[in-house]
């Protein structure tokens, strides 16, 4: 893609400015995230992840008010970048962490070592629940949580994403809020890839079926799914958090198509950022646009 394609189609023109905690810049936030080691692991792979997605973590944090309090459930907390931001910048929240590393459900812990946002070295033990939320009910009572963080997990579901959302709804208080982020299937770099004959689908992963993106969503699809599951939208935008994958398609070819589709310029970002209120009634049926090969009376 030519360098000047970003003049009109760059998602950064239409997304919120990068939200930063007072007194911090991106570099100081990244310094802490990039220093993280889990159970004595080397920081190399985590450092690359933190560097590439630091802006995503900051946009996610900003969807939770500075004065937020109560109980927060974070699904897929490992590798704890968002967790660290929440603990330091949203200290009134009590965090419950869930991961899935395979096998049956069990409680465990991981040891984190990092240079904190205060500049000091920290060694901290975090407890978490190992649970496959797609197949196993969460061991929490109804209406327990004030907040849910469900970030970069939805796209990994292999069988029944609506079931997971309904289970999260069950443990949320009436009016509780969910912050949900997921890759945008209709992002600009995917549009360009298809035009140029490149595949957009995720490679098979050495971490198994949950280690890859099994189904990504467009902004409209995410809205459909969440409303179907009884949530009301409170915030929604797409955003780039790093440079797009380059292509060779010129700007002059893309602009007449994309910029003449109403509001399409707002839907080209790499990630979908959204916040949802637990206020609606959920359907017990599966949305027919997302599921197939089910009995007719099981589909909406």
Automatic annotation (TrEMBL):
The keyword Thylakoid does not apply. Coiled coil: none annotated. GO terms for biological process: methylation. The keyword Transferase applies. Keywords: Methyltransferase, Transferase. Gene3D superfamilies: Vaccinia Virus protein VP39. GO terms for molecular function: methyltransferase activity. This is Class I SAM-dependent methyltransferase. It comes from Lysobacter soyae.
